[in-house]
Amino acid sequence: MHSMGDDSIVGKISHIELRDVGQAFKVGRYPIHFHMVGNVMQSYAVGNSIHDSNNRAITIHGVHYLTIADNVAYNIKGHSIFIEDGIESRNFIQNNLVMNTHRSWSLLNTDTTPANFWITFPDNDFVGNHAAGSANYGFWFDSKVHSTGPSASNDVCPTKSQAGLFINNTAHSAGRYGLRIFHEMTPLTYPCQPIVYDSSYLSKNKTDPYW
To answer: pTM score > 0.70 for this model?
Structure first.
C-alpha cells in the first residue's frame, strides 16, 4: 500500500492467508507492506495468517495510526513485525501471535539477529502480543539518534522520544532475550533539543536543599 499522502489510499486487509510470500534479496517485497502513506487512520491489517515467508510478515513504513491486530505470523525470515525508519508513530499493534522467527542474511544486518517485533520508534502501542520463539529476540526496541531511510530527518529523535503503551505482552523461547532495549531510550519532553545546564539556577535558588 503506497501513495503520496495522508489517507489517500485505504488498505483494509482482513482474514486472509498468505503463504510462501516475501521475496528474499528484494527490498520492499514483504507480505503486507504499508509504505510512506503518512496518516492511515482508515487502514488496518486484522485477523490474517502469514506463514513461510522469506522476507518479514508485516512492515510498517512511514505511516501513523495504523492498526495491526489479531494476526498470526509463523515461520518467518527476518524481523517479523517490522517498524522500518524510526519515524512511525501512534500505530496500534494488538493481540498478534508471532512464532518461529528465523535469521536472514538477505535483508538488513540486524536480521541476522532477528526479533519477532522490531521497534525503531518508541511511540507506538503494543498490547497483548505474543512473541513465541525467535532466533534472538522477542521484542527489540532498536532506536537510533535520528530517523533513517526515506524518512531521514534531524528533526526526529527516536532515542529521546516518549514511549507508547507496552502492556500484557508475552515473550518466550527466544534465543537471547524476550525484551531488548538497545541502543538507548531516554525520553524527553522535547526530544530533539539539547539538555542545557542553566548556570543561573544556583544563584536564583540558593535555598534549594539539593544545592
So the answer is: yes
Q: Is 187 among the domain residues? A: yes
What's residue 75's pLDDT?
Answer: 98
If phi > 0 it is left, if psi is from -120 to 50 it is alpha, else beta; for residue 61 that is beta
Domain assignment of residue 7, yes or no: no
Provide the residue type at 130 as one letter.
Answer: H
The answer to whether residue 211 is domain-embedded is: no
Amino acid at 136: N
Closest CA to 174 of 107, 111, 95, 101: 101
In this predicted structure, the answer to whether residue 211 has a pLDDT above a threshold of 80 is no
Quote the CA–CA distance of 23 and 6 in Å, as a whole number: 28
What φ, ψ does residue 198 adopt, rounded to 5°?
-95, 105
Tell me the per-residue pLDDT of 65-118, one tens digit each, with 9 for 90 and over.
Answer: 999 999 999 999 999 999 999 999 999 999 999 999 999 999 999 999 999 999
User: How far is the C-alpha of 174 from the C-alpha of 185, rounded, in Å?
Assistant: 22
The Cα-based distances of 31 to 48, 157, 173, 174, 188 in angstroms read 11, 29, 24, 23, 35
Burial call 164-187: b when 16+ CB within 10 Å, e when fewer: bebeebebeebeebbbbeeeeeee
Instruction: Please report which helix (H) or strand (E) contains residue 25, including its range.
Output: none
Residue 209 within any structural domain of the chain: no
d(CA 76, CA 21): 10
